[in-house]
Amino acid sequence: MNIRIPVILASLALALPQLVIAQAKKGEIQHDAEHYVLLDQHEEQWQQEDKAIDSRLAELKKQNGGKPPNIIYILIDDVGFGEFGNRLLNDVRGYKTPSINEFAEQSMSFSRMYSEPSCTPTRAAFLTGRLPIRSHMLEPKIVPPEGTGLNKDEVTIAEVLSQAGYNTAHIGKWHQGDIEQSYPHNQGFDETSFTMHNQATFGFMTNESETDRWPYNVSHTIEDHPYVLDANFRPKNWVLALDAKKGEQAKEWGIKPGEALTYDYYYKMNEHQQQVAVAHLQRLAKEDEPFFLNYWPQYPVDFSRPDNMEKTDNGGSWVGRMQQLDGWIGDILDEVDNLGIADNTVIEANNLGRKAHPL
Q1: pTM of the predicted structure, to 2 decimals
Q2: Enclosing domain of residue 143
């Protein structure tokens, strides 16, 4: 039996009504009022379900020689409710995501989370288990250079799992700042291939984006626009993709120092990170220790206008990238089965969109 149970890690330490605070025991986690309302309605059922789950987990742990379960967490950007997970809604959107749909059918579905439906805050909430306001990661960071990021003193899930004996790896978008202390290999991950900034940088900080009429004044290749005030803003030499190991200095991936970033680089970077994710999965599965693989793809976000996208019923790069991403996630799920680790691997997939509806 394959076990793919989503695990939602989010902070429950919210301010409570005075009545609830008065009733809470000293040292006990204080939840929001709705938690206690739902607990009153469903506590008996939840206790029975918890016993069944605990029994199954104990059985799996025994079958796997006491080894804790592996964890794979996939977070997808800017995808709203109905983008995938359901064939009928696929038909409305005009494309197919069979791999993700099958995964959704095998999974538990959660529709609530304690976080903002945007990039940086949600990622910070998942990593720390705290509301983003507590780590001051409150808004999506977009324009490099930023000079801010996740503080070195934050305790992340990767650090906790490392202390529990897990091998850890982060692949893909990071978006937790561009200062060194915020990098994933300085926040508990053993190995990483990551991008610092938002995908939107390719929408307004490249020469090609200016040619596509997204921004003005990035380069001298386009005529000066009459409404541009700052003639000095011509971004150059910004760094996006890095590879690193814990305790070592990060190195820029796939480009020479000072070389201008292009759409083609973005495509190659996405392909590279998918390949690295599969390679890490294959390597980690062979280790004696359990693993935590954190994979946050850049796609389907793509501000370019590629000519080579796979045709779909409603066209456009977004739907083409969605189908491409579905294939990539399918490759990871298939590899879990091929490696024989499905019975002891917890897989969670979240889509981070304006409705923040996790699978």
Answers
A1: 0.82
A2: 18-25+68-352
